[in-house]
Amino acid sequence: MSHRTSTSRDHPGSVLERDTGRPVAAPSGGNIDGDVTTTLITDLPYGPRAAAVARDAVAVALHGTEPYLLDNARLIGSELATNAFASGSPPLVMCVDRRFSPTGGLEVEITITDGGCSRSAPASPPAPQEEAESGRGLVIVEALADAWSLTTGAHGTRAWCRLAHSALHSAAEPD
């Protein structure tokens, strides 16, 4: 199965598409009020490989960022993709926005959409049973993300989160 991947910068006409099965990111170049944003959009397989493809896509989109931020973003992407496969319907699409501010900060937004589900979104992540082998995805997202949301519906589900990283933050973070 091939995956469609698109990347764009902040100005029209800079969309790249590839059917290689591997996500690729365009170099940053857009500039709106001093911010530089790169966006990666990729189809995820509707199946157990969704999590692995999501982790790889996040790694491509965030290449060169602080290791702890990359690790957190890859874990979040994996959890959101797993939830979309387990609870939603095809198609699964992932979007990763990487935005640098003029002050040196970095903001990452990860969004995964699917074709919808019949269950409504929980008001807060449910606490999993101690012995449960699953059910911790949204708890992990809530713990790692600076902001997140989940909107469900019969015709589409959207899971979104934001991770913010300031320039001052990088000196204080562990390797």
UniProtKB/TrEMBL annotation:
Q: Has keyword Oxidoreductase?
A: no
Residue ranges annotated for the Histidine kinase/HSP90-like ATPase domain, each copy included: 48-159
Q: Which GO terms describe its molecular function?
A: ATP binding; protein serine/threonine kinase activity
Record's InterPro entries?
Anti-sigma-factor_SerPK (IPR050267), HATPase_C_sf (IPR036890), HATPase_dom (IPR003594)
Query: Does Repeat show up as a keyword for this record?
Result: no
Which CDD domains does its entry note? HATPase_RsbW-like
- Composition skew (Basic and acidic residues), residue ranges: 7-21
**Keywords from the UniProt entry:** ATP-binding, Kinase, Nucleotide-binding, Serine/threonine-protein kinase, Transferase
The segments labelled Disordered in the record are 1-34
Q: What is this protein called?
A: ATP-binding protein
Organism the protein comes from: Streptomyces montanisoli
